[in-house]
Amino acid sequence: MLKLLLTIFTLVFTVMFSSASFSEWTKVRESAEDIYYVDFESIKKIDGYAYFWTLRNGLKPTEWGEISSKIYRQVDCKLLRYKVMRDSYYKEPMGEGMPSESSNEPDKDWTDNVPNSPAEIILKSVCNW
Predict the structure, then answer these.
(1) Which CATH superfamily is domain 2-127 in?
(2) Listed residue (8, 35, 14) closest to 88, CA to CA
(3) Structural domain spans, the chain
(4) What is the SS3 string spanning 50-61?
(5) Which of 11, 15, 63, 80 has the least C-beta neighbours within 10 A?
(6) pLDDT digits (tens, 9 = 90+) for 37-50
């Protein structure tokens, strides 16, 4: 019974994150610490909002040992602010392997854009897509 439950959980978890697993990542910004990608094929625009996947690939692990993350965001293109809808963190580069941590609970509040930040470059590129 435990084996069956584990199989079902693995299948459901894989399906939940499949839209980010087989993405076509396009590099949008690179810094000394991180490389940021967007899956432009995942962009959905609805009522002035855009929904899309991003990938951050670190050049060294965070303090928690994670080297990459995949985040599904909602962006308000008029005010250039965003909410995280889902996120997952990985100990492997490019979001490979099983996530070490993840959340499917959307942010309740908007995060304002910070000028000249990686987020601003990502938001502008998605909204102009």
Answers:
(1) Surface-adhesin protein E (2.40.128.710)
(2) 14
(3) 2-127
(4) EEEEEEEEECCC
(5) 63
(6) 999 999 999 998 99
